[in-house]
Amino acid sequence: MSDWFEPLPAEEKNSEFIAMQSKTFLQEAWERFKKNKMAVAGLIVLLIFTLLAIFGPFFSPYDYDAQDTSNAYAAFSAQHLLGTDKFGRDVFVRLCYGARISLLIGFGAALINSFTGVIIGGLCGYIGGKFDTIVMRIVDIIYAMPSMLYVILIMMVNGANVRSILIGVCIPGWIGMARQVRGQIIGLKEQEFALAALVLGASDKRILFKHLIINAIGPIIVQMTLLVPSAIFTEAFLSFIGIGISAPMASWGSMAQDARQVITLHPVQMLLPTLCICLTIFSLNFLGEGIGDALNPKKK
Asked: Cβ–Cβ contacts within 10 Å for residue 186, how many?
């Protein structure tokens, strides 16, 4: 018997073994996300703007409302990296403060609208019946009125400030998220895993939040990233037409509005805040598309 068999060499023992690292769903999604160069670039741009909004003013000796009329419309220099405006205020510092307000409104409105839309849409999709019908009719009534009208009315009552813009944006802003989540829940609650959880005695609350909404998290995150540029653009538009953030506070929209009168003489004054708005909106759109592809198992 010893003549028929020979010991297998040590280097050949694992020749047919295939090692594969086990990855979670989020790890696989991150790997797919990193392959999307536009989405990664969008994430980097957003991080840069966020860091500038938080730490940018600390690296400048000027305040956003400090005026020096003798140094109005100064060119780019070591003292003023991006020059000054018509009142001699440092443009770089005002852009950083403008980023704080614009990003605060954008992400704040997105978080509030997402939370409200997920709760209302999830309940409508899961409960259904008369509750769903009544809530959807209320949604139709809110949606029938122009969203800008809510913002203007709230600002007339509470004044032109960040809180007024947030309230006005959030009144109709959750409707799209609610409809998206409602449609997802209606499709998911009839699938086998939801019926199995019901048969095993899981409560309605656990089925809705632990099974259904979790399985719809991909479209929810994508929809959330689309809410941010919408809120930023609304604030910029209101400030540009003169009913947004009050002076001397700075937002990208108010800076563009201030530069409108001198666009032919000093086009850079208009270009800088407009470029910040465009880069932010493009970055958020690319980021949302990248997240959607990364969270889609079919794109694996």
From this structure: 16
Q: Is the dihedral of CA 126, 127, 129, 134 positive or negative?
A: negative
pLDDT score of 63 more than 60: yes
What's the rounded Cα separation, in Å, for the pair 155 and 235? 12
CA–CA separation, 239 and 27 (whole Å): 41
Give the domain ranges of the chain.
Answer: 26-64+80-299
CA 264 – CA 100 distance, rounded (Å) = 28
Quick one: which of 182, 168, 196, 57 has its CA closest to 117?
182
pLDDT tens-digit map of 102-147: 888 888 888 999 899 999 988 998 888 888 899 888 888 888 887 7
Element (H, E) at 199: helix 192-199
What's residue 44's pLDDT? 93
27 bridge partner residues: none
pLDDT in tens, 161-175: 788 888 888 888 888
- Whether the per-residue pLDDT at 298 is higher than 60: the answer is no
CATH of domain 26-64+80-299: 1.10.3720.10
Distances (CA, A) of 15 to 184, 233, 246: 46, 59, 71
